[in-house]
Amino acid sequence: MGAAIDTGNGHAPPRIHRRVAEPEPRTLQTDLSRLEPARAFAAVVLHYLLAVLPSATRELAGWRARAAAIPSPSLRRHALAALRKRGNIEGAALFATLAPRPHRRETVRALVAFQTAYNYLDALSELPCEDPARNADRLHQALLTALHPATAAHPDHYAHHSDREDGGFLHAMTDACGCALARLPSEHAAAAAARSAAARIVRFQALNLTERQGGHDALRRWALDTAPAGSQLTWWETAAAAGSSLAVHALIAAAAQPELDPCQACEIERAYHPIGALHSLLDSLVDRREDRDGGRRSLLDHYESPPAAVARLAALAGSASQACERLERPHMHRVILTAMCSYYLSAPECDTGEAQAVARALERALGSQLRVALAMFRCRRLLHTLACRAYA
Length: 392
Hints:
The structure is a single chain. By secondary structure, the chain is mostly helical. It has a single domain (40-284, 301-386), classed as Farnesyl Diphosphate Synthase, CATH 1.10.600. It is 66% helix and 2% strand. The chain is built from 16 helices and two strands. The protein has a two-stranded antiparallel sheet with strand order 1-2.
């Protein structure tokens, strides 16, 4: 920057007048681009509350009625508990905001059925059994079944489980997801990428063992072998990405687009790799105490220190935000990313110093929208508490 020197009357010290660079001229286009993130945030929230949430609530009510009729007391209890995890099922339904209106209902049905099945199978795989890895693998194969058009023949997903009297509950969920997917216009284009993402969930669940069952040695070897080239993730971050259902949700929503290209589906799968890693690690943050009590090693325990974990989660948030920019309608994907982070960081379990440090770091990485979304989720949780209804 240039400067002009004024010597005054010869007695006062010289005064320096700096030429201030003129600001860039404002245009309507630049103003609109600055407003786009806030506009997209408001539009997605409004669309979700008015058009998606009522449909998701109806789907949940139907699955609760079906779960209440399960003959086995144990399976009935776990199915109802899975449905009480309303927050992450509603989070799955949020992806339906990406679907065109004519296909929104089927998209919500597929998303809710898939996530409810995931919650249910995750709970069952943690129960004691003779061969935890084979049991978890066989149970979670149902997630792959759910991504195929419904057929009359169903594999025995309870083959290594002690109880199977679920009254057709699991089959009903996989059929509901498969039938809804089959009605979406681009199911064929999204299918391969969605099944690839679901297959990684199955493998993660089979290898994510407690210390008593063998710990994370096999998970580590698998993650090192399957890490995408150039991902720059640690092995446990790669494993975390594999265990996330978000890529499947994004691909189900993409299948609702009339002319999806398979290459676009593959790009969605790649983009949701860092987003999925952040998703699973935030879930681990919420489950810290539960994992400790259950003898399970948290993926977060592999970081050398809590500050290192906070720094990496912030870096993942930055990578996740950049990944959204590679997708069509990036602002909408960023809203979904922000909502996911807010859901976990607003949980009552995130009252620890570590969790609060993570929240501050992610706020710096994702911006003020995270602060707004956190306030919204905390209000929602408070309203559910006042109504004596859990919001897990």
